[in-house]
Write a structure and sequence with these properties.
globular, mainly alpha, single chain, about 140 residues
Length: about 140
């Protein structure tokens, strides 16, 4: 696993990142798990923002790709989602991968709700399932 780094980030809002979080954010960037937000020629972290289900799926899929064998934990084909047209194109492949791996689930009504924030319960389940898929 990647250790926390002591270097600075290259995010334009680095001054807003708490010192306790900075080494972990640097390590996550260096590991390829997070990239930040590209806007007007700069990249920011936006540490005060909540994480959407789409963003959680992207980070999960990156971890599977980097630390798994690319197909770690894949159990089946991703289900067809009722709100598939609402899923941003940048997140669609990652959501499909996280669903196929059984790490994220749609809701009982068949929707994924990509723009909805991830609850603490969803995050805990996602992390546990990701670690299991990676054999950790």
């Amino acid at each position: 696993m990647v250790e926390a780094a002591s270097r600075d980030t290259n995010f334009s809002d680095e001054a807003d990142i708490p010192s306790w979080a900075k080494p972990h954010i640097v390590a996550a960037v260096e590991a390829g798990l997070i990239q930040g937000y590209e806007e007007a020629g700069t990249t920011s972290f936006k540490g005060e923002h909540t994480v959407t289900r789409a963003e959680a799926a992207v980070m999960t899929a990156r971890a599977l790709q980097i630390y798994g064998n690319g197909t770690a934990g894949l159990t089946s084909k991703a289900p067809i989602l009722e709100d598939a047209s609402d899923i941003p194109s940048w997140a669609k492949p990652s959501i499909d991968k996280a669903l196929s791996a059984g790490i994220l689930n749609g809701y009982e009504d068949g929707a994924f709700r990509a723009g909805q924030t991830t609850t603490r319960g969803e995050a805990a389940a996602m992390i546990y399932k990701l670690l299991a898929a990676l054999g950790i």
